[in-house]
Write a structure and sequence with these properties.
This protein is of the alpha+beta class. 29% of the residues lie in helices and 24% in strands. The model has no long low-confidence stretch (mean pLDDT 96). It binds 2,5-anhydro-1,6-di-O-phosphono-D-glucitol and manganese (II) ion (2 copies).
C-alpha cells in the first residue's frame, strides 16, 4: 500500500528537492491550513455552534458582514500573527493592513485573504471557502515599517496561493508555482492528505458560469459570448452548453479545476465606475494563478489578470477565467 502524502510531507519534499518552498513559507502554508481546519469545524457546526446569521456590521466595501466572515477573519489572524513568518496581513474584512504586532518576530511574507468567500451561501448550507495569496515584502530599507504600498504587487509576484473549500468535503487547493495540488481533510487523522496532483483544466468546455440576472447590464462582448452559448447546436458554436452558478467563487473555480468550464464576473453597468465586483488582490489573483498553473487562462477581458498593477488594496477587477480556449475567445471579443 502506498503511504498517504500529508500536506506537511508534500511541503517538506518540495523544500528538500527544489527549494521552491523555503522553511518560512512552509510554516506559513501549514498555519493557513490549520486555520482553515478550524474554520471548517465552525462551518460544520452551523446553527449548533451559533455561527450562522448576520453580525450587523459592514466591511470597507459596504457589505453586511456575517458572523462567520468575522470568525474566519479572527481565526486567520490569531493563527498567523505570532509565528515569525509574516510582516503583515490584509483581508476583505479589514479596512487597512494589519502589521504583525511588535511583540512577535517579523517575517518576510505578506498574507492576503478572503476569510469567507460565498457569504450569501453560509446560512443556506451551500459550499463556501477561504481564499489566500502570499507575496514577499519588498526590500525597502532596514527597519522601515510595512505599508499598504508593499502589498501593491502584481499577481505574477505571488509565491503561494490557494483556497480551502468547505463543501461535502473540505479540500485545500494550493500552488507554489509548480502546478496545482489538492488535499482532502481527513477528519479522523486531522490532516490534509494529497488527493490530486498536477491538476489540469481541459482547454475546451461546454459549461459556463455567470450570474445571468445581470445580463441586461453587461457589455457587448460578454453578451455576445453568452448569446452564442445559448444558441447551442444550431448557433455559431455548434454545441449545446450547460450553465452553473453557485455564487461562491471557490465552488465555481473548484468545479472548473475539476472538470473545466469558464467563470465570468464581468464589469457591468450597475456601478460603471467600479471595474467589477470581485477583488483583485485576494480573490482574482490567487484564483487566476491557480487556473493558469492548471493550464487555464484568466483575463479581465483586455489583459492577463496577473499583470494588472494594483493601485489600492481593495481594488476590484472584471474576471474571466477557466478553460483556455473559451477565455481566449471572450478576450478576443473584447477586441484585444
Ligand atoms: P464574498 O462572499 O467574499 O463577498 O464573495 C462573494 C462573491 C463570489 O464568491 C461570488 O462569485 C460572487 O460574489 C457572487 O455574486 P452574486 O451574488 O452577484 O452572484
Ligand atoms: Mn469572496
Ligand atoms: Mn468574503
Amino acid at each position: 500500500m502506498t503511504a498517504k502524502i500529508s500536506l506537511t510531507r508534500y511541503l517538506v519534499e518540495k523544500q528538500r528537492v527544489d527549494e521552491s518552498v523555503p522553511s518560512h513559507l512552509r510554516l506559513l502554508i501549514e498555519v493557513v491550513a490549520r486555520a482553515c481546519k478550524s474554520i471548517s469545524h465552525a462551518v460544520n457546526k452551523g446553527a449548533l455552534g451559533g455561527v450562522l446569521g448576520t453580525a450587523h456590521t459592514e466591511n470597507v466595501q459596504g457589505e453586511v458582514q456575517k458572523k462567520l466572515d468575522i470568525i474566519a477573519n479572527e481565526v486567520l489572524i490569531e493563527a498567523n500573527e505570532w509565528g515569525g513568518h509574516l510582516a503583515a496581513m490584509a483581508s476583505e474584512e479589514m479596512d487597512e493592513i494589519l502589521a504583525v504586532p511588535h511583540r512577535y518576530p517579523q517575517g518576510e511574507y505578506l498574507l492576503l485573504f478572503d476569510p469567507l468567500d460565498g457569504s450569501s451561501n453560509i446560512d443556506v448550507n451551500v459550499s463556501i471557502g477561504t481564499i489566500f495569496s502570499v507575496l514577499k515584502k519588498p526590500e525597502n530599507g532596514h527597519g522601515q515599517a510595512v505599508s499598504e504600498q508593499d502589498f501593491l504587487q502584481c499577481g505574477s509576484r505571488q509565491v503561494a496561493a490557494g483556497y480551502c473549500i468547505y463543501g461535502p468535503q473540505t479540500t485545500l487547493v494550493l500552488t507554489v508555482g509548480d502546478g496545482v495540488a489538492m488535499f482532502t481533510l481527513d477528519r479522523e487523522q486531522g490532516s490534509f492528505v494529497l488527493t490530486e496532483d498536477q491538476v489540469r483544466i481541459p482547454e475546451d468546455t461546454k459549461e459556463f458560469a455567470i450570474n445571468m440576472s445581470n445580463m441586461r447590464h453587461w457589455d457587448a462582448p460578454v453578451r455576445r459570448y453568452v448569446d452564442e452559448c445559448l444558441e447551442g447546436k444550431e448557433g455559431p458554436r455548434g454545441k449545446d452548453f450547460n450553465m452553473r452558478w453557485v455564487a461562491s467563487m471557490v465552488a465555481d473555480v473548484h468545479r472548473i479545476l475539476t472538470r473545466g468550464g469558464i467563470f465570468m464576473y464581468p464589469w457591468d453597468k450597475r456601478e460603471p465606475e467600479k471595474p467589477g465586483k470581485l477583488r483583485l488582490m485576494y480573490e482574482a489573483n490567487p484564483m487566476s494563478w491557480l487556473v493558469e498553473q492548471a493550464g487555464g487562462a484568466a483575463t479581465n477581458g483586455r489583459q492577463r489578470i496577473l499583470d494588472v498593477q494594483p493601485k489600492k488594496l481593495h481594488e476590484r477587477v472584471s474576471v474571466i477565467l477557466g478553460s483556455k480556449n473559451e477565455v481566449e475567445r471572450v478576450t478576443k471579443y473584447h477586441g484585444t
